[in-house]
Amino acid sequence: MFKFGALSEGMVTTLKPKLGANPERARSHNKQLVLRAVRHSGTIGRAEIARASGLSTQAVSNIISDLLAEGLLVEQGHRSAGRGLPVQQYAIRPGGGYAFGVEVRPTAMFTALVDLVGTPILTHRTPLKDPTKGVILDTVCAQLDHALSQTQVQRHMLMGAGIVMPGPFGDTGLTGTASELPGWNIGDPAEIFATALELPVFVENDANAAAMAERMNGVARGLDDFAYLYFGQGLGLGLVQNGQILQGAFGNAGEIGHIQVLVDGRPVELESATSRLSVQACLARQGMDVTTMDDLTSLYSSANRHLMLWLDQAAQALSAALSIIENLFDPETVILGGAMPDVLLDHIIARTVLPERSVSNRPDRVHPRLMRGTSGRMTATLGAAALVLHQAFTPTIAEAR
């Protein structure tokens, strides 16, 4: 099976190209160029791949032969190109490989097995009453076995596993927040999961993974620079620049939930005004126990007064945060998504005031400044799997050591 570049033992990193330093890496890089061109177009011919990848037609022909033999590409009929013989078309073969995605929250684990084009073939939710390391590791291993058994996918067809969990990573000044997983601030989570699963593993925070899911198959497909505000237990920010996740020195870039914004004239942490924890706490103070997205949807349908007040507060807080995000990162768009019902996200977007004094306030815009994601409540879970697939379609070559 095609080996898709160097897998890092930890967070996904941007690797510096050094073409020619290692013939095998150079060949792997070129395979990724071809796969990226095919995935971007859906179906495509050899000459078009050569133009898109910058490789010679002969090199593309050789690589396509390899990829067909490895089961990663499939012939997809012919297309007439004017005079001359019809052109053979190629597409990604969905069953050419699989990725396992895991999202760990303090109260539940979500898993997904997806094929090579990112289509989920199985998803599952498992309640977590005890989010300690041992329980989480045992549950992840059990869910992987369950997914393979239910789908009849062979283990050797797995390209790797992506694990997403709330940040921050490491022992920081934010340790101890209600949205984090206890005990995971010590040690290397990627190494721990890789040992347990015996697979290449990527670990990311949930917001970054959600951003990657939207870029693979959501509203951000084709975008190289955007920001993704993710509603998990808390509120995180995934930043994509030049097609790569912006991580920071320790993988904690985007912890926007802990910045201060003004709501009704008083400074509050953004996460305390607009997040799942925030709305649950607000409604709990009124005697309402809200635990699921369906609960929130039902309250919205009945125009619950307390929920409506919270939504106004959330929109106000988001308006202040939007000014910071736009002027710091100059994104093509800001996307809202995650574990929040679409109707609530649409309500917040409709009432968010777009700041006039912003670099994003320009007449030549192609995309709206604020959009709702389309990947739904499984966004971060699918994003976990997308971390693995991203490597197959992103040409990166590590420096020779």
UniProtKB/TrEMBL annotation:
<feature type="domain" description="HTH marR-type">
    <location>
        <begin position="34"/>
        <end position="83"/>
    </location>
</feature>
<dbReference type="InterPro" id="IPR036390">
    <property type="entry name" value="WH_DNA-bd_sf"/>
</dbReference>
<protein>
    <submittedName>
        <fullName>Sugar kinase</fullName>
    </submittedName>
</protein>
<dbReference type="InterPro" id="IPR043129">
    <property type="entry name" value="ATPase_NBD"/>
</dbReference>
<dbReference type="InterPro" id="IPR036388">
    <property type="entry name" value="WH-like_DNA-bd_sf"/>
</dbReference>
<dbReference type="InterPro" id="IPR000600">
    <property type="entry name" value="ROK"/>
</dbReference>
<comment type="similarity">
    <text>Belongs to the ROK (NagC/XylR) family.</text>
</comment>
<dbReference type="Pfam" id="PF00480">
    <property type="entry name" value="ROK"/>
</dbReference>
<keyword id="KW-0808">Transferase</keyword>
<dbReference type="GO" id="GO:0016301">
    <property type="term" value="F:kinase activity"/>
</dbReference>
<dbReference type="Pfam" id="PF12802">
    <property type="entry name" value="MarR_2"/>
</dbReference>
<keyword id="KW-0418">Kinase</keyword>
<dbReference type="InterPro" id="IPR000835">
    <property type="entry name" value="HTH_MarR-typ"/>
</dbReference>
